[in-house]
Write a structure and sequence with these properties.
The protein is an alpha+beta fold. The protein has a single domain, classed as 2-Layer Sandwich (Translation Initiation Factor IF3). It is 35% helix and 43% strand. The chain is built from 2 helices and 4 strands. It has a 4-stranded mixed sheet with strand order 1-3-4-2. β3 and β4 form a beta hairpin. It is elongated and about 55 Å long. The two termini are 16 Å apart.
Length: 105
């Protein structure tokens, strides 16, 4: 499965547009992470536990988007984008979405 944030795949022609596919996940922060993050704001630097949390959430959202594309028998997903939104205090939704397509030569 080819995933691209452009609206084309170099060297390939889009033969058919299958439709919008998406994958999302809602992740909640863990209280222990908040304590460590609060300390980090005092001394500065990356809050690695949050970086890891969000990276994992993005990866899962992409996997879910690809799963939807496979159900449509897509060859690729183009114009992939991410969106985030707060759902409630301490949790956020990560959404990956794009257009599933069939490719030609």
């Amino acid at each position: 499965m080819i995933i691209s944030n452009t609206d084309y795949i170099a060297g390939k022609k889009i033969k058919e547009t299958l439709g919008l596919v998406r994958g999302n996940i809602i992740k909640a922060r863990w209280f222990g992470r908040d304590i460590a993050a609060s300390l980090k704001t005092i001394v500065g630097g990356e809050i690695k536990s949050y970086t890891d949390l969000l990276s994992g959430a993005r990866d899962e959202a992409i996997k879910r988007m690809i799963s939807e594309a496979k159900k449509l028998k897509a060859d690729a997903v183009v114009n992939v984008r991410f969106a985030t939104s707060d759902v409630m205090q301490g949790s956020a939704e990560i959404l990956a979405y794009g257009t599933a397509v069939k490719l030609g030569k």
